[in-house]
Write a structure and sequence with these properties.
The structure is a homodimer of 330-residue chains.
Chain A: H1 11-22, E1 26-29, E2 34-37, E3 47-54, E4 71-77, H2 83-93, E5 99-104, H3 107-122, E6 127-132, H4 152-165, H5 170-182, E7 184-190, E8 210-213, E9 224-227, H6 231-245, E10 250-258, H7 264-280, E11 283-291, E12 301-308, H8 311-318, E13 321-322, E14 327-328
Chain lengths: 330, 330
């Protein structure tokens, strides 16, 4: 097994050490495994806390910063953070206006964030939660009751983060976060499994000619195995599934996301097909991201996430953001 | 072979189509394979033109934009652009203050950019060139006489781009570009080969326990094959080679670069080791990048690039940049 690691037991803390060294804008509590903005909480601002298993970087820790998250709680690889992390993060980022939990719909995450919210509430912290469940590939899965939460998490964190920055109330920030999720859908296709740093073993098996249609971000099964084909076909499968669930049209925020091991030139080719598909539906790419945003370690493949924008969401998407994973100017 | 492509013959133009669709700030001349800023040349500003084989994305096309390149000329995968592309790009971006060619030291690139510069000069265009040759791994290689040009290209494009934006003369912009190259060194280590989209074949063979020390960005051989080891050892090998060539110390710009197929969590772990190494040498990480910047398709591994900063270079590094590959606010 060949990985850029020192010790399987210290992967997450070693990565946090590197993240701290590379980002003076962050304060990284390595003992408790929480990444904060170095600037600390701002009085009157809603605090945004997210988290989830490691191995999906830049999600979530690289989205901590101005205009996005206040704290991120990474678990072990593909393992939920524990309630203590989430409680501690919430207390630290509370500026008196309450805290929003942004939770991807995986059973472990849902249970641990819920427990954290309840325990924090008992200590007097006001907490609201938004559940992200944008993946239309499967109804239930190995790790989930209901739809899985994937790429839309980036949109929810960015857009609700912008609103929180403007001083909006917890109710308002939670409303917008929910609205983004409601308007967003995702679908992923894997060309290869990922390999876990601990074992070096692939998370599932695919032959040299097979792909996994509707794969989850931990490599969990999707809708079907199929023969590999041209990317135009793969994009057609993904976009048909999305369009069937949420009819496409008008201004669309589009992310073509790499799963960690796919070359960027392939993602651009994929984006061209998504753009052509949307135009065919009378929709248009209004805002776009192409790159690795919600990864599955070194899996090869892509996911596409769309969000049907309105004026409010577009304005909040365009608002300044300063994180290591997403950044544009004030 | 499983790749996100439609046709081996249209990989570069399909990718350019996607890049155009995703980036309204770019004007993409697909027929001539040139990526420009949509805003066009600015009168009195030196135009920056770079280019090279495709497969290294985000280099170069994603670094076209305010504060960085004016145009990029992608060749076929791992193949130099032709002189016609470079001549055309130079004419288009000339704002009357001349054009700087930023050229990675590979024989094909050097010859084609030189020919382009000569032909453009005959037509009255003022052209200066900077050759980037930061890779200390090998003296000559399969594709190069002298050192190869790798990660420092990102630094050269960013820093000289910032100076050009301020209205400096071609002589000044070329001086700073040369200075950045002089102060920069790189070293790369591959865990796996990359696979070419055309053939699906790996560019070289490595066993499950072997790594390539000093690999080039096309998978060309480095200094040695070695057994895989903890990343601390690998970073030690890379940084020792750099330090031997350019003694490390003081404020350092550091890039830990993924080769396209390595997970981001591994790159953070690698960065932690680079930071520890530098501190051991009395140097410090003054500015940092962690991610995929100069890739080799889907190769797994990393390269580290350092630049010993001075006040001028730091100020120019911090200047605003608005490209899809590198961006921070004005």
């Amino acid at each position: 097994m060949k990985k850029l690691i020192n010790d399987v037991g210290t992967i997450v803390t070693d990565a946090l050490t590197g993240m701290a060294a590379a980002n003076p804008g962050l304060r990284v509590d390595i003992a408790n495994r929480i990444v904060y903005r170095a600037s600390g909480p701002r009085q009157g601002k809603v605090g945004l806390v997210s988290g989830g298993g490691s191995g999906h970087e830049p999600l979530h820790a690289a989205f901590v910063g101005y205009g996005m998250l206040d704290a991120a709680c990474p678990g072990e690889i593909f393992t939920s953070p524990v309630p203590d992390q989430v409680i501690e993060a919430g207390k630290e980022v509370d500026g008196g206006a309450g805290v929003l939990h942004i939770v991807k719909n995986y059973t472990g995450d849902v249970l641990n964030f819920r427990l954290a919210a309840e325990l924090a509430a008992e200590e007097g912290l006001e907490v609201a939660s938004v559940l992200v469940n944008d993946d239309v590939a499967v109804r239930d899965s190995l790790y989930t009751a209901g739809r899985r939460g994937t790429g839309a998490t980036v949109f929810v964190e960015k857009i609700s983060g912008a609103l929180a920055e403007s001083g909006a109330s917890l109710t308002e920030v939670a409303r917008v976060a929910t609205e983004v999720n409601k308007r967003s859908r995702s679908f992923g296709i894997a060309l290869t499994p990922c390999s876990l740093p601990g074992t070096g073993k692939p998370t599932f098996e695919l032959s040299d000619t097979e792909i996994e249609i509707g794969v989850g971000i931990h490599g969990e099964p999707g809708r079907a195995r199929a023969a590999a084909g041209p990317v135009r076909e793969l994009v057609g499968i993904a976009m048909d599934a999305i369009d069937e669930d949420l009819p496409l049209g008008d201004d669309t925020l589009v992310m073509v996301n790499g799963m960690g091991g796919t070359s960027l030139i392939e993602l651009y080719i994929t984006f061209a097909e998504v753009d052509a598909y949307l135009r065919g539906k009378g929709a248009n790419v209004s805002r776009a991201l192409v790159g690795n945003y919600v990864t599955s370690l070194d899996m090869q493949g892509f996911s596409v996430t769309v969000c049907r924008l309105n004026d409010e969401l577009t304005r909040l998407w365009d608002a300044p953001v300063e994180t290591s994973g997403l950044r544009w100017g004030r």
